[in-house]
Amino acid sequence: MSERVLISGASSGIGEYLAYYYARQGARLGLIARRSVQLEAVATQCRSLGGQAIVLPLDVTDPVAVKTARDTFLREYGGIDLLIANAGISGDDHLDSGNPEAANQILTTNILGITNLVYPFVPTLLEQKSGHLVLISSIAGIRGLPRRGAYTASKKAVKALADSWRFTLERSRVRVSTIYPGFVRTAITARRKTIMPFLMDVEPAAAKIAVAITTGRKNYMFPWQWRLFLPVIKIIPDWIVGRVV
User: Fold this and answer.
1) What is the DSSP string of 56-98?
2) Nearest 5°: phi and psi at 92?
3) Peptide bond into 63 cis (omega under 30)
4) What is the CATH number for 121?
5) Rounded to the nearest 5 degrees, what angle is found at the Cα of 140, between the Cα atoms of 233 and 179?
6) Who's near 71: CB < 8 A, 6+ residues apart?
7) pTM
8) Would 87 disulfide with which of 9, 31, 133, 200, CB 3.0-4.6 Å?
């Protein structure tokens, strides 16, 4: 039986190429993103690669829309094997503006967008006594970065959610994995003007994530260089971080 896979943030970047990866495996896909035109294009490509795909255009910050999408997905496929919570945004906090709107939008999308997506599917996963939740965090969650407080805070929160859910669900045979990508060549990184060490192309990045999921990695950080630098990053003096970033 082909795997039933739901991916948020599937209209571009990592989510898009994860969809292509699983389509090649013959998966039955549910694709979530706000941009319906781009999402339809991804779904068409997935079908040409051998997968099935339904499009679920919505904003993950809308819990009612997510519940409707859940009903559609479960009605279509009869259950779920893999949920990849990938939708997320980045950007400047604009702390000096005096307006919290930009920071709040990042926090809402990156944190509540995950809880909105995951919670409606948990009863089904528990009933099945199977399934796999995958949360996409980031190496940016390692420490706060200048002008990216909301983004780094949100990615730390993703790690905390995944750690907690892993303990809560382990006796129900529901697996939880946290993925920590480094810099990946996507539309988000294309707008960045800062140094991006170990920048990876998106297709091999998606393949690495999929392999980590298949092999049951609870935590997976890539590229491998970041695993070496992690202890250093945590203790680098603030003035160096500020100068570089």
Assistant:
1) EE--TT-HHHHHHHHHHHHHHHSS-SEEEE---------GGGT
2) -70, 140
3) no
4) 3.40.50.720
5) 110
6) none
7) 0.90
8) 9
Rg (CA), the chain: 18
Task: Note the pLDDT of residue 196.
Answer: 63
Domain membership of residue 191 as a residue range: 4-244
Residue with tokens 């896979």: 5
The tokens 């529901």 sit on which residue?
174
Other beta carbons within 10 angstroms of residue 216's beta carbon come to 9
Q: Residue-wise over 33-46: b if at least 16 C-beta within 10 A, else e?
A: bbeeebbeebbeeb
Q: Tell me: the pLDDT tens digits for 13-65?
A: 999 999 999 999 999 999 999 999 999 999 999 999 999 999 999 999 999 99
Tell me the one-letter amino acid at 173: R
Number of domains in the chain: 1
Residue 224, C-beta contacts closer than 8 angstroms, at least 6 positions apart? none
